[in-house]
Amino acid sequence: MSAFKFGLIGQNIAYSKSPAIFKVIFESKQVEGEFDIIDVKPEQFGKRMASLAKHGYRGISVTVPYKETIIKYTSKLDRRAKVIGAVNSLVFDGDIVLGYNTDSYGFALPLKEHQQTLSGGAAILIGNGGSARAVAYSLSYDFGIRQIFVAGRNDKHLDIFKANMAKSLSGVNMETVLLNHLNEYAQSSKISLVVNCTPLGGPNHADESPVPDEFTWPREGIYYDLNYNTNNCTLGLAREAGIKVIDGRRMLVGQALRSYWLWTGQDVSFNNIYEKMDFDG
């Protein structure tokens, strides 16, 4: 039996690089471990969750579409997860299930060098799910962003997102916008960052873009796509527009290392793991 048993629960996640990351972590720490993909349909989710601790899992990462659904299966949330309203990391401690959010930690890593540029500015956030919640939290608390335009396709979902996050993000002016009106906001000189928090452009939708046709990229801005596949069509569009591009690879490694620390109490060097990863393989 492996010393450590972890996994990732989600739906349609065969593409995930998390097992590869944890393989490198186990090798780096010279420990035995396994990391499983737990692909579950919504109607089977509750039953599968109830069995995880019994099957020896010490910790579980959570991805789409369950980062908000998972909360009702936890015994306690840490402060960050409670504020964000989304969980992507579970710790099993006997019968207790502790919920954490390490997405916000991972998201912040590659943006730290742009702290001065972002502070006090405005950002466009595309998407309104669990990852978008973590990003909004980080933009406010870690980078001092004071205005966030949240874009999506559904007015009702956007309004719910705004109502939930406005309670936690004091000092942030949050506005919602439908995607087909996004250009009106993107041309503002105050926009310094556009973040894609949707699966569009990701491994299952590489040729689909979250931005509307003829999107006007903000001058001197940054495009940050949480998806980490290199064939993401929107990354190419942003590069052609001449703006700085950040993909989700460093975020993925960063949040994984934070989860590993929660599960084991052991620190791991970010650079050591990131440099050994083959994201195209």
Features:
281 residues; alpha/beta; Rossmann fold; 2 domains; 6-stranded mixed sheet; 6-stranded parallel sheet
Describe the structure.
The protein has 2 domains: 4-101 and 252-276, Rossmann fold; 105-247, NAD(P)-binding Rossmann-like Domain (Rossmann fold). The chain contains 11 helices and 12 strands. It has helices at 18-29, 45-52, 79-84, 103-108, 115-118, 130-141, 155-166, 183-186, 233-240, 249-264, 270-276, and strands at residues 4-10, 33-39, 59-62, 76-77, 89-93, 96-100, 122-126, 147-152, 173-178, 191-196, 222-225, 244-246. Helix 1 (18-29) links the parallel strand 1 and strand 2. Helix 1 (18-29) packs across helix 10. The longest helix has 16 residues, at 249-264. The radius of gyration is 18 Å and the shape is globular.
Question: How would you summarize what this structure contains?
Answer:
With 281 residues, the chain is of the alpha/beta class. It has helices at 18-29, 45-52, 79-84, 103-108, 115-118, 130-141, 155-166, 183-186, 233-240, 249-264, 270-276, and strands at 4-10, 33-39, 59-62, 76-77, 89-93, 96-100, 122-126, 147-152, 173-178, 191-196, 222-225, 244-246.
